[in-house]
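G.,

No rush on this.
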Amino acid sequence: MAHSVKTSEQTVSELGESGILQVILPILRSENPLLGPGDDAGALKVASGEVLVSVDTMVQDQDFKQQWPSGLTHRAFDIGWKSVAQNLSDINAMGGRTTGVVISLSLPGQTAIAWVEDFAHGVARALKELPTTPPAILGGDLGLSTEISVTTTALGESAGRKMLRSGAQTGDVIAVAGRVGVAAAGLALLEHPDSSHLWGRALRRLVQGQCRPVPPLESGPRAEEAGATAMLDLSDGLIVDGGRLAASSAVSLKIDSTALTEFAERLEPAAHLLHTEPLQWVLYGGEDFGLLATFPNEQAVPEEFTIIGTVGAADSTGPAVYIDGEKMAESKGFDHFS
């Protein structure tokens, strides 16, 4: 049955799967897939012979809220953007570049088609603006659910070595690229009741860091070319992700808090409003999707990375992260099930 022309007031149930696809596929059309959406699977040419794969899911009221306690309505555009950004970040952390993405979108029947259209524009804009070479949309899936859920799979390739978490060596230097703590400060503002009317430009930039993160996508391949020994993205916080790198490499990370001062200072406006210590966001805040990497020496560290410490041998208690000589607990970092 043919669908009537959609209006922004229609819901996904009223329009149906075919009608929804007619709305979003023109927005998501890519120029570079071998075979894009429309068949049972997409196709992509791979030059390196190896494919990098990453998948992440965003679920309503777990990873985002339609309406935040602060009073801010979470735009569908930003959800689409972030679903792409976090997956491109994973490929970036492997020293690779994303070549294609597949998106599964599950929606309640009463979802307005205008929401879906805004989401698709966010996906398309992120794919166009974040990487140097836009990846292809290869396809995806639509489903009915009780809440909004977005699962994005990214495919990529690396021109050089695959960067792992397990290569750090005693004597390496530790460095970070991108934002650290911004997304956590933004989340704290979003959760602060009836506060959005108090946000000036500085606070809104922090909120945007949570809703629309910008991973340093050129820094992953650049770190690999510079000889990085280990790397991962900062999705769950410096201490938690640092602990993962330390465990994989069987080393300890020794971080100097003074090297984190510049990151904490950027969060001062939010810390002042919320009466908290900004360094806690730097240490334990996730979802900035920057990079944590180790390098054999300072000369090897690319310019956009900030050196924050050195790699030491694990002691009798095992691999760990230390700040100014104090062993840090990982339990305060982000965990989906905590």
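When you get to it, here's the other one too:
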Amino acid sequence: MARRTNKNEPRYGANELNERKRKVLWAVVQDYADTAEPVGSRTIARKYNLGVSSATIRNEMQDLEDEGYLEQPHTSAGRIPSIKGYRFYVDWLMQPAPVSNEEKSMIDSMLLDHVTKVDEIFRNMAKAVSSLTHNLSVATSAGIKKKFNYVRFLPLDGARAILLVVTDRGDVSNAVVDIPKGSTFDEMQLLADRMNHFLHGRDVDSMDEKEILSFQKDVEKNLSPYMNVFQTLQRVLTPQQEVYSGGASQLIEQPEFKNVEKMQDILNLLEQRDMLE
């Protein structure tokens, strides 16, 4: 019943439960996922035909609770899976359903059709998982280092310019920066040209003091008035972990989210991206 397929992967917890306890835990997770209600031994005996009595199932559920796989929210209630129980279920008990040809075609279409940027792949991945599972999905991308390609300035007004930064991945970021007092837009364009020559193709995820001093020596110019430009460039090039979600509307199909307050809680969490990273 193990889900892992990598023979070199440590099988922590694989033998912690005997076969009967595995079956009882599997049934509790299945029923709780379907109903969002605490599960009792009689329900398990009636619905899942485990071949043992309700009393035996009750004893096994008590053992599973003692070992941390189940919890009892109220004294008179049945049991629900704990985090440890869910983890064991996902690692060792869950049997992934085969992907149909229609679903494969849908995945290929969502992930490969006209996708040119990494963030589009992750965004489509979240949508694909949501469509397949009929549930909310969340995908995160690790911060990816970007290579500097080039920078440009666009005039905004007499005191400000728009900084455009392009990376090797084709990402384009923009920000408004102040034109230093005593400088002109043409001088900023010359600075951009020298910066492009100096930084092109580098793995630049920060513009620290050492980097700026090296650049200052290269251009033979005092760069102190341009510190706001370098700070903005640093922010743009620093790798950021992104969070993508899909299928929030699918939550209404899940029994536990018939409660409007629970639905509101999860939607509020999705808006707080920093908690999901």
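Residues 1-12 have pLDDT under 50 and may be disordered. The domain at 19-93 is CATH 1.10.10.10 (Arc Repressor Mutant, subunit A).

Enjoy the weekend,
O.
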